[in-house]
DNA sequence: TCTGGGGTCCTAGGACCC
DNA sequence: TCTGGGGTCCTAGGACCC
């Protein structure tokens, strides 16, 4: 028997909300987080006042500046967002033991079995109990953190997410078992998680606008558009999707109830025009960074991927399977080789990235083995960084090209 | 008005082995 | 010598999510 016990909780305009806690004078004004006015970059979060002017997530800051010239543009305080995200999660965990963070501002909660814990005489049924508890949860987040949030409760994860979207802003919706298909049917296809801009266009070209039409579309058509996802997507569109909460984001991996896979680690950087030598030193810095992250997670990478974007936005990737390592010098050597082979066009490079994948857990080490000089170097570097900050120590190649001001290598990272 | 940065998952062709 | 098929790994690209 399916019950509406899966809850999707989303912090409304999360980055903007945190900025308003840090600076209350931003309340009521159009606010855009994602970069300084007129600069390069895209909108990562915008207030409802800015959205009313046409500003959307993912839009370039330039375009947002044109639409909302009087808006406040902020580069953002990522450390603060993480703090508030963790605090919100701790509140949610008071209401149910089964919580999975899907991103910094989105969590899934499983309320199965919690009804008896919260049941009250005034609740007409168990759905009413869960709805009341969900409201109490968003209220606690508002009271204790000052953050607005919305929630959707339904029988499946996908339906809960759609319901949460319908509830925004500051709302809570419960879609009872049996009411899913009727709720979804009139919605545009794009509302369904898994339908992005490309699939939306393809569906439109096939004359499919609503989820009701998607549900009754021929199998061959859906397979052609969605491939392996076709069956699951049709099920989701009918409100018959799975109730599993899904996997944690890597940042929260240690809480992951389904977390046997180790995923990947990547860093990339877009920059204004640069010389080739500069690009190479940037690659060195990125190699160092992903390796430091791998070591802090206790993993080694069996695969290294280089990402390269030319000025015309043509983007290529080159990867190589390697003997698993988390050693900067090893990874950098591979990255550099991939880069020199891949960089065939005479165009300026606008972005480079380094990714580590095929991660495996580090062999448990009671002490540093004397024969593995590379490993020991990496760990020593990490110890220095723990004490003096990430920039306290770098590979010489990173320093040579980076116009970095030699300074503030004092004190740990904030 | 050119389009960030962190991820996940699927596809498809070719190599290689049996 | 030629042909075929299944399984698996490697690699590059692309859709999607937040």
How is this fold's topology laid out?
Blueprint: E1 6-11, H1 14-22, E2 31-33, E3 45-46, H2 48-51, H3 61-67, E4 72-74, H4 78-93, E5 98-103, E6 106-110, H5 115-118, H6 126-145, E7 149-154, H7 157-167, E8 172-174, H8 180-184, H9 197-205, H10 211-215, H11 219-226, H12 230-237, E9 265-270, H13 276-296, E10 299-310, E11 315-325, H14 328-342, E12 349-361, H15 373-388, H16 396-401
Parallel strand pairs: 2-4, 7-8
Antiparallel strand pairs: 1-6, 1-7, 2-3, 5-6, 9-12, 10-11, 10-12
The chain binds a DNA duplex (18 and 18 nucleotides) through helix 3, helix 9, strand 9, strand 11 and strand 12.
CATH architecture of the largest domain: Orthogonal Bundle
The parts where pLDDT drops under 50 for at least 5 residues are 366-370, 402-414
Task: List the helices and strands in order.
Answer: EHEEHHEHEEHHEHEHHHHHEHEEHEHH
What general outline do the C-alpha atoms trace? Answer: globular
Q: Characterize the main sheet.
A: 5 strands, mixed
Q: What's the helix count?
A: 16
- Please report the first level of CATH classification, the CATH class of the largest domain: Mainly Alpha
Question: Can you describe this structure?
Answer:
The chain has 414 residues and is α+β, with helices and mostly antiparallel strands. The protein has three domains: 165 residues, DNA polymerase, domain 1, CATH 1.10.150; 65 residues, MutS, DNA mismatch repair protein, domain I (3-Layer(aba) Sandwich); 137 residues, Dna Ligase, domain 1. It contains 16 helices and twelve strands. Strands 5-6-1-7-8 form a five-stranded mixed beta sheet. A hairpin with a 4-residue loop joins strand 10 and strand 11. Helix 4 packs antiparallel against helix 6 and helix 13 runs antiparallel to helix 14. 36% of the residues are buried. The C terminus is likely disordered. The protein binds a DNA duplex (18 and 18 nucleotides) through helix 3, helix 9, strand 9, strand 11 and strand 12.
